[in-house]
Amino acid sequence: MSNPTSTKPDTVIYPITDRVKHSLEVALRSCDELLVQDEFVQKLARSEATKTPLRIKLGLDPTAPDIHLGHTVVLNKLRQLQDLGHTVIFLIGDFTSMIGDPSGRNTTRPPLTREQIEENAKTYYAQASLVLDPERTEIRYNSEWCDPLGARGMIELASRYTVARMMEREDFTQRFRNGVSISVHEFLYPLMQGYDSVALKADLELGGTDQKFNLLVGRELQKEYGQQPQCILTMPLLEGTDGVEKMSKSKGNYIGISEPPDSMFGKLMSISDILMWRYYDLLSFKPVADIKALRADTEAGRNPRDAKVMLAIEVVDRFHGAGAGQKALETFEARFRDGAIPEDMPEVTIAEPEIGVLKALRQAGLVSSGSEAQRNIEQGGVRIDGEKVSDKGLTLGSGTYVLQVGKRKFARVKVG
């Protein structure tokens, strides 16, 4: 290996090897944005030249006890980087959870009590270990350095970031313009998340696209504390089984990674054919070339169900062990041979007093468009609670319904 060159006494430029290029390719796969790419390439090159793993951080607030497939989009990327030999830091935000993060919301997220946080955190790491290699994962809690700060330390930290910069955050700006209150404590959340990067000396931080502002604060605070700023890798937010909203337990469109194999398989089979490719991009470990070839075959006439079955088997096997996906497929097919409605299916809540059947089918993720919904009704392929639907203008009032499209797509829909 050639020796690194330097253009300045304190600036070392390391050689970009094939391994560095491969590592960058792994990092970029399916990501939304990598900031700043040139800096990250040099971090990779430095790591290889000095045999020093990068410190890669992911912070999750234990706001709920269960992890779903939406969370694993980032966890999968973390595992890929871990397999390249880098140090993964799984940070549980037990301190920041008590503040409440308004990211992507126009109101604050209610803070949790210490008891709620501790209860949720018990299962977080155990579930994350289904994706990460626990023997190569550093687990930390941000109360380790946030609690000792005290009032004096908090004020000193706050002095390192301006209100003008804080108001660049989109949701703060919108709320201010709309006259919606912003509590002072909300400014503390991105500050504390950024301080986590200082405490951990992170080289790279991962997060969803809705966390970009908070991750950038970490970069700026590291500069303030005399550290090399971390790079940022954001991953797309995975839509839930409805194909509309991002996956969320509160919206009932999630697939939990600790769900039984049959339930997980059934929910994956219920997603639309269009959404399936999004899931392939963000959840599958298959080579990109293989996914492209499979998609080309499907567009050329192969039954999309084949591709969906392959995806469902892959995901179920990942969380329940080799062979679990095939067994779930056999159970799934047996239910339909018997003509029975499956016990496990996606659950969708529609917060409206009533809704037209066409719109309900779309929001349930059973069809991708209104025209597809009409076509299925005209062909006699739509049932509600087992009864065939022929009226395209049918309105569903408040209540819970089992919607079915064809023989294999089901959703339990709660209206009202």
What does this structure look like?
- ATP binds at residue 249.
- It is an enzyme of class 6 (ligase).
- It is found in: Cytoplasm.
- Keywords: Aminoacyl-tRNA synthetase, ATP-binding, Cytoplasm, Ligase, Nucleotide-binding, Protein biosynthesis, RNA-binding.
- Homodimer.
- The protein has 416 residues and is α/β, with parallel strands linked by helices.
- It folds into three domains: 5-235, Rossmann fold; 239-343, Orthogonal Bundle (Tyrosyl-Transfer RNA Synthetase), CATH 1.10.240.10; 345-416, RNA-binding S4 domain (Structural Genomics Hypothetical 15.5 Kd Protein In mrcA-pckA Intergenic Region, Chain A).
- The chain is 46% helix and 15% strand.
- The chain contains 17 helices and 15 strands.
- β4, α3 and β5 (87-92) form a beta-alpha-beta unit.
- The N and C termini lie far apart (66 Å).
Index terms:
416 residues, alpha/beta, Rossmann fold, Tyrosyl-Transfer RNA Synthetase, Structural Genomics Hypothetical 15.5 Kd Protein In mrcA-pckA Intergenic Region, Chain A, 3 domains, 6-stranded mixed beta sheet, 5-stranded mixed beta sheet, 17 helices, EC 6.1.1.1, Rossmann-like_a/b/a_fold
> What distance lies between the first and last C-alpha atoms, to the nearest angstrom?
66 Å
CATH class of the largest domain: Alpha Beta
Average of per-residue pLDDT values:
86
Class by SSE composition: alpha/beta
Sheet with most strands: strand arrangement:
3-8-7-4-5-6
How many strands, what sense, and barrel or not for the largest sheet? 6 strands, mixed
Oligomer: single chain
CATH superfamily of the largest domain: HUPs
Number of structural units classed as domains: 3
Fraction of helical residues = 40-55%
> How many runs of DSSP E, i.e. beta strands?
15
GO molecular function: tyrosine-tRNA ligase activity
Pfam family, one: tRNA-synt_1b
Motif ('KMSKS' region): 246-250
Subcellular location: Cytoplasm
